[in-house]
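Table S2 (text version). Query chain:
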Amino acid sequence: MGTVPDDILLKIFKVFIDEIEPYLYPSEEWHTLVHVCRRWRNLAFTSPRHLNLVLICRSPFRSAKGMLDVWPELPIYVFDFGHPSKVARDDLVAALRLNHRVSGIRLDQTADFGWDTFGPLMQHSFPALTHLWLQPYFEKSVISRSFLGGSAPSLRDLVWIGIPCPPLVELLLSAPNLVRLRYDSIPRSGYISPQAMATGLSALTWLESLSLTFQSPGDLPDRANRIPPHHTRIPFPSLTYLRFQGAPEYMEDLVAQVDAPLLESIVITLFNQEVLKVSELAKFVRRADKLSLAHQAEVIFKSDCITITLSPNILLGLYDPKTLMLNLPCPESALRLSYLAQFCASSLPTLSPFESLHIDVPMYFTLDDFIDYPDPQWLDILRLFTTVKNLCLSKTVARRVALVLRGLLVERVTAVLPSLENVFISGLEPSGPVREAISEFADARRLSGHPVSIHDWQ
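Corresponding structure-token output:
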């Protein structure tokens, strides 16, 4: 058998090493490769960048001082999970002082005394830093304008959790190669206006994933300067994933300023508001080519919220990654239909026509949970889905919706769901109140000249 060429062997090495995304935890599998034979060792160490070889410093498991004496001059990845001892802190300090070699830093659940030690060291420039994850055990303000020397030219992955960062805009503008940004659990002291946030993000032309989540509603956008003119929209040519949690007004102002044509997935959680208007979100989704192809809508009533998912393949039970998922917290069950109606009224006219609508309620709910939902509210919602051909109902909600549809007079039966062709009901029994109600609705549709078929949906 002939010898495997170096280029093929390097490709095999890379597949073996690249099992985990480096921004989560860099691979240490290369240690196994370099101990197989001298050829493998030399080949790996002559291509450290191609194989993403790094020295993981995680005291006391992997001492920085010990590794620096043994291995070649590879990039350094500094880890701290929890409450480091003085010995561990001293070891991590030794690694951070080699700032020209540090490619990754993850300080996760780090206590105050750890921040007091590491914080001053992170005011220097880290020219090779590509991955940064900061999450203190308690909320702590450690981010100043001198953070990372005021510049992060190589940074690709940035995760900040629970940290106020007034100079975020300046830092983002200095990190043009950022690919993933998570600024989560933003405290009130870390509030940044939607206009300033959009300005900071405007330089990130390579950004693929963005997560912004607030701890509480906090300050709301200035109503005097809410929606900017459309010609000022900022393009995000690489963005494919967006996650947001916060006030609807903030989200509306942010998405009104940006375009993301390649966006495939959005997860939105909106804080509870009396009035829900998300027309700018709908327009934003419409401007995303892949998301605008979603023709299925699923509505799930949960114990404390409503979840709305738009996707191409809900009817088939296949959740396509090109989706929008909207979580609307609503502790008062009697208000959930009103909340849903507000979303549909403000969004559906702008979004693509939906061919399938799936309404689901967990089995632990009973009909009594929906007694307070007046019939007109159900009709107001269903009337908005003028293009729906397939209506899918879970067993728990089927009786309520079937009773509402049965109450329509023959001359009004096509005023609700006029394009309907099929009704799928989970666990539909041969007889009983649900079968009786939905059969009367089907009879009325047949008499109107717009028949529907009833199916047991397994």
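Notes on Table S2: Residues 355-458 form one domain. The CA atoms of residues 386 and 417 lie 5 Å apart.
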